[in-house]
Amino acid sequence: MKITVVGTGYVGLVTGTCLAEVGTYVTCIDIDANKIEGLRNGIMPIYEPGLDAMVERNFKKEKIHFSTDLASSIKGADVAFIAVGTPPGEDGSADLQYVLKVASQIGANMNSYGVVVTKSTVPVGTAEKVRGAVQAELDKRGVDIPFDIASNPEFLKEGAAIDDFMKPDRIVVGVDSEKAQETMSKLYKPFIMNGHPLIFMDIPSAEMTKYAANAMLATRISFMNDIANLCEIMGADVNSVRRGIGSDPRIGSRFIYAGIGYGGSCFPKDVKALIKTAKENDYTMRILEAVEDVNEDQKSVLFDKITNHLGADLSGKTFAMWGLSFKPNTDDMREAPSLVLIDKIKAAGGEVVAYDPVSMPETKHMIGDKITYVDDPYDALDGAAALLLVTEWSEFKLPDWDTVSSRIGNKLVFDGRNIYDREELNDLGYSYFCIGSK
Fold first, then answer.
1. pTM for the full model?
2. Which one of 155, 324, 421, 435 counts the least CB within 10 Å of its CB?
3. 231 an active-site residue?
4. CA 438 – CA 434 distance, rounded (Å)
């Protein structure tokens, strides 16, 4: 099969590379010529474990190609994935201009039957707008080329995207014709041979499934953070509560860890978009509005703990920050809680010295020299008023506390991800503050 993927961001690049891995011929398209040239030379535009090796392997085999030429690449394509960005507008709605522009370009250049698939996360009803954009260009050309539209939302976790694509929990595809279903079944056959489910449904339901999934996960996170805040007031320990409720099979243990809020490219944007979609249809997503409110407040919890202990004026104090990205195994800084914490510390007169194993270049791209960056986590500690654990990277989980003690100004730890043991740190003479426990 010949596959075209438009967009070489996180979703498009992972999709194209994994499809090439199972034998299809894939062309990944992007308007950014520098990005395309970089990919041809093995330079990844994103950090994702295992992706660089897979791209290199398939590029050498000529299974995957990178181009800026959509017009020639779309000709003869069996499936064209639209995987461009849908950034949130100021009102929370998803910006579809890039999706619809690609749809128009497909219609202006396709020369045979193909399935046009929305892979980007888009609101319910977008597929029909894509269909209209493709058809309008065909009408301009005065040609009658059959095509189908499909919705195929992604469910990739940053940091584990390769495994998620190659061994999916499920593949959701929205179609409205037998031919489209046959084409997508053929494409995904290699991924379902070991029993991974391929679920077909109508297109609006597929579009809604993506938003509903992310909204549910965001809800679990905010719910647990709300419980954590109450635990502190009542003298309970949220870690014990989590184990207690997580052992119930109806609840399970995933996404019920207390922390300093969710971030990234999906949850914040998708929750906002779903709330906006509801408002446009005269409905209020009361639970999701609360989810969003809790999450925004939660990003300030660690700062509040700092000022409660050290006072509101942090002038003359430097804080060692371990972790910047919104989660481990990614360099994604979008909506990262660390950015809120940095802004608040700076506004209170303090300084931040930070280390992150992957995301410091992206952080510097976003905020410049607002903070100091170091190449070793222990170098961030020299004279620091406190250690702030913000992202639970594996290399932070078992630090050498003797080395920490020898370099830090105060034996003071604020743990935003609850990865350290209170008793151990107290025995070592540290004052320890975490989330959801006194």
1. 0.90
2. 421
3. no
4. 8
